[in-house]
Design brief:
By secondary structure, the protein is α+β, with helices and mostly antiparallel strands. Helix content is 33%, strand content 12%. Helix 6 links the parallel strand 5 and strand 6.
């Protein structure tokens, strides 16, 4: 349940301010009413079994309420007392006997009033009368709702009938955009919740690394009868499959009180790390020669047979939620080879680290996010030229067409770094999309830096602002599907490339807050090469 430390009233004022700014001038001083429905408890198809409930983000932002089946009615008007203290009426379900018998009932009105930043708390049965009172008091009001879409909870017609009967203007054209623009920058209370989610998730990443290291050192011993006469206990678990790494990560978050993962964890070993949103998490670690997407391990680990795990990477992109606020962290770690990267994997890992480090150094308010994307591509091109994957003008049978600028202009680096360097993060992991990447974007002018393909999947295309929370997640991948179109590229030394393809993919992702003078990293688990190898090898 929310507490009054959550600044719902301030969020309402911020949202109304953004909303009024977007209205035609003749509408800006009229009363503005918002009507929102909260999410309801979902059920598995054709059964009476509940699925995990998670409140709709915009509803929570304006109410701080995580009670299923609730409604919110907000009223605001420029130039009146409602501009400083909007009316906030929250309607939560009444506890019924069946609720008490089968599950935890909703709070009483008294309990909800004590813990929510609302001027009035009632039951949904009271909502039609409350609407009728507003219609009488503010006959010229504009009523705003979220778009009618499967993306948002539906407002039953019984609650909108009073507005329609009085010919009140109801529109869905402005509210979502205003909410997204308000949510783009975070206040201190929101930042604290995001920090907590990142601290919990950071520890979960480290738990996986340390269990891998204990396995390398032989420190995980099975007691008598383990796996035969009795189940294995958590202290006896080895990580030899993607699913086992996922289970430990989620369990670590859950033990610290996190109810949800912010998104489906991505746990990809070996060449499967080249799939950006690989969520299968159902394969064993590779042994024997690693070939692209080689899954032929015959389930030997689960049979208890001794096998030597082949050198490979394990990419984990996972983060929990804390009270509806997300973390989003990726760590790539060595598996096999005594917990050390192979020379090729280490070279790619350290290049991705360099891409991230240079991005961090550039972060500041006013800098356009496109510049960070371009910086990462430039760093990749320079790094690939050092490694010999990309040719230089001085390479054999080469020339100026393999200069750094020429390679950037060709767009070939998008085959290795196809996604955006990061995105806005808040209550949703890919937060406020209509505001982060607006359809009409006056901040993007002229010819794109480098190549248009650099920006195809970039989810944030704005100048940075103080109070934004963003991810910084460069990566390098060797996907056979993405490499197919560049197999004949004159910029690539294809013999050198072959040596690196078995790496699969490397991504490193941290969550940062944009501050007045730069940034603050909210992710606490380390990523420097020496520390990662020492932990994954059990040396520390």
């Amino acid at each position: 349940m929310a507490s009054k430390t959550y600044p719902a009233q301030q969020h309402a004022i911020k949202t109304f301010t953004k909303l009024v700014e977007s209205l035609p001038a003749v509408e800006q001083n009229k009363p503005q009413i918002l009507l929102l429905a909260g999410e309801v408890t979902p059920f598995r198809n054709d059964t009476d079994r509940e699925m995990p409930f998670r409140q709709e983000s915009n509803f929570f932002y304006l109410s701080g309420c995580r009670v299923p089946g609730s409604y919110l009615l907000l009223t605001y008007q420029n130039g009146t007392s409602l501009a400083n203290t909007p009316s906030s009426q929250l309607f939560i379900p009444k506890a019924e006997l069946a609720d008490i018998m089968w599950s935890v009932p909703p709070p009483s009105l008294e309990e909800a009033s004590a813990t929510h930043d609302a001027t009035h708390v009632g039951h949904p049965a009271d909502l039609p009368a409350a609407i009728q009172e507003l219609v009488k008091a503010f006959p010229s009001a504009l009523v705003h709702t979220l778009p009618a879409s499967p993306l948002f909870p539906t407002i039953p017609s019984q609650y909108t009938a009073s507005f329609l009967a009085s010919n009140t203007h109801v529109t869905e054209d402005y509210l979502l955009s205003a909410l997204h623009r308000a949510r783009l920058t975070k206040d201190a209370e929101e930042i604290a919740l995001i920090k907590r989610a990142n601290e919990i998730s950071s520890r979960a990443h480290e738990v996986v690394m340390r269990v891998l290291g204990q396995g390398v050192r032989g420190l995980i011993q099975r007691g008598k009868g383990a796996g035969t006469e009795r189940p294995l206990l958590p202290g006896e678990w080895l990580i030899q499959k993607e699913a086992e790494a996922e289970a430990l990560f989620v369990a670590s978050c859950r033990r610290e009180g996190a109810e949800h993962q912010a998104y489906l964890p991505i746990v990809a070993a070996s060449t499967r790390a080249s799939t950006l949103h690989y969520c299968c998490n159902d394969r064993e670690f590779a042994w024997g020669p690693v070939k692209p997407h080689d899954h032929h391990n015959n389930n030997d680990f689960s049979h208890g047979h001794e096998r030597v795990i082949d050198p490979q990477v394990l990419l984990i992109d996972a983060g929990c939620e804390w009270k509806c606020y997300a973390a989003d962290i990726t760590r790539t770690m060595p598996v096999g080879n005594g917990g050390k990267f192979t020379p090729e994997a280490r070279a790619i890992y350290e290049l991705v680290l360099e891409m991230q480090r240079l991005s961090f150094e550039a972060l500041k308010p006013g800098l356009h996010w496109d510049a960070i994307q371009f910086l990462c591509h430039r760093t990749l091109v320079r790094g690939f030229q050092r490694l010999g994957i990309f040719k230089t003008p001085s390479s054999q049978n080469s020339g100026s067409w393999n200069a750094e600028e020429a390679i950037l202009a060709s767009g070939v680096s998008s085959a290795f770094f196809p996604h955006g360097v990061g995105h806005s993060l808040g209550m949703d992991v890919h937060d406020v999309p209509s505001s982060s990447k607006p359809e009409k974007n006056d901040t993007i002018k002229g010819i794109a830096l480098g190549h248009d393909s650099f920006y195809t999947y970039l989810r944030l295309r704005l100048p940075l602002e103080e109070g934004m929370v963003v991810t910084v997640e460069p990566g390098i991948y060797f996907s056979p599907h993405l490499l197919a179109p560049v197999r004949d590229s004159k910029h690539i030394d294809h013999e050198v490339l072959k040596r690196y393809e078995s790496v699969g993919g490397v991504r490193i992702e941290d969550v940062v807050l944009i501050t007045k003078d730069g940034y603050e990293n909210l992710t606490t688990v380390r990523s420097d090469t020496e520390w990662v190898e020492k932990v994954c090898s059990g040396e520390i």
